[in-house]
């Protein structure tokens, strides 16, 4: 282990998830999803509908690309919608329509409340870069560039693989490892020499399946055991615990 960064000595690159690792936006996504799915279920099943829960978010939605989240959660409730088109009106009964509704709500919330970063993460990334390691942001979110710009954090990452890039390159999203592998490749570092930092169970699966050198689970919601079960080498509540202090 390096004493400074809390990583194995041979790690040359760090691949960071965005929502819940760099920014406090995992809860904003979760709230937008809950509003979207509860409205959908209420309309379908009436007032006695079974609401979307935190456990549903963790299992079916967190960390996955938008459309995969729609399909995966609704399938768990026995609903399989047609795909529709990317420009379906928000709330239309299609995978795209439901996803578009969620995006409208997400952007409203971000616009109203702003985006906050985790200071411990920003300090850790500074230390990682000062130590000469390369960095990437790897997120399923198609809003990654805007969110990073809003906290002036684009400069912290040498490479960005997000929901937009994944679509362009036809990369399957988390829990598949392809987006993390693409980031490591773009950085010129083998997966075995790259560390993954993730808060979502789907992201842990991606880290494990990709054969990465080290996988750090970031527990913001009390799911340490689940993060270990999904493949974390170490779980922290804040990246400051790993070290990297000036
Ligand atoms: O809808 P977006 O911004 O493209 O984000 C896709 C997904 O991005 C992930 O980072 C979030 O954990 C999910 O909740 C979200 O659904």
From TrEMBL:
EC number(s) on file: 5.4.2.6
The protein's required cofactors: Mg(2+)
Superkingdom of source: Bacteria
Keywords of this entry: Carbohydrate metabolism, Hydrolase, Isomerase, Magnesium, Metal-binding, Phosphoprotein
Catalysed transformations (reactions): beta-D-glucose 1-phosphate = beta-D-glucose 6-phosphate
Region (Disordered): 77-97
Xref: Gene3D superfamilies: HAD superfamily/HAD-like, Putative phosphatase, domain 2
InterPro entries linked to this entry: B-phosphoglucomutase_hydrolase (IPR010976), Beta-PGM-like (IPR051600), HAD-like_sf (IPR036412), HAD-SF_hydro_IA (IPR006439), HAD_sf (IPR023214), PGP-like_dom2 (IPR023198)
A molecular function (GO) term: hydrolase activity
Pfam families, sorted: Hydrolase
Family the UniProt entry places it in: Belongs to the HAD-like hydrolase superfamily. CbbY/CbbZ/Gph/YieH family.
PANTHER family tied to this protein: 6-PHOSPHOGLUCONATE PHOSPHATASE, HEXITOL PHOSPHATASE B
Name this protein carries in UniProt: Beta-phosphoglucomutase
């Amino acid at each position: 282990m390096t004493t400074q960064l809390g990583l194995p000595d041979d790690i040359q690159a760090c691949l960071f998830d965005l929502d819940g690792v760099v920014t406090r936006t995992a809860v904003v996504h979760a709230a937008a999803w809950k509003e979207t799915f509860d409205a959908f279920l209420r309309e379908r099943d009436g007032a006695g509908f079974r609401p979307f829960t935190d456990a549903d978010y963790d299992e079916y939605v967190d960390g996955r690309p938008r459309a995969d989240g729609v399909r995966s959660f609704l399938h768990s409730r026995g609903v399989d919608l047609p795909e529709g088109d990317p420009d379906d009106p928000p709330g239309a009964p299609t995978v795209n329509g439901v996803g578009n509704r969620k995006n409208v709500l997400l952007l409203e919330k971000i616009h109203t409340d702003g985006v906050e970063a985790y200071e411990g993460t920003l300090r850790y990334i500074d230390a990682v870069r000062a130590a000469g390691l390369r960095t990437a942001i790897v997120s399923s979110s198609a809003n990654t560039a805007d969110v990073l710009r809003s906290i002036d954090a684009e400069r912290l990452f040498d490479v960005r693989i997000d929901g937009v890039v994944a679509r362009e390159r036809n990369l399957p999203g988390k829990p598949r490892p392809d987006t993390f592998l693409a980031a490591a490749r773009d950085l010129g570092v083998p997966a075995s020499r790259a560390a993954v930092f993730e808060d979502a169970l789907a992201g842990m699966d991606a880290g494990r399946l990709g054969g990465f050198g080290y996988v750090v689970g970031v527990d913001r919601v009390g799911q340490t055991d689940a993060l270990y079960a999904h493949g974390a080498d170490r779980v922290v509540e804040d990246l400051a615990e790993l070290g990297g202090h000036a």
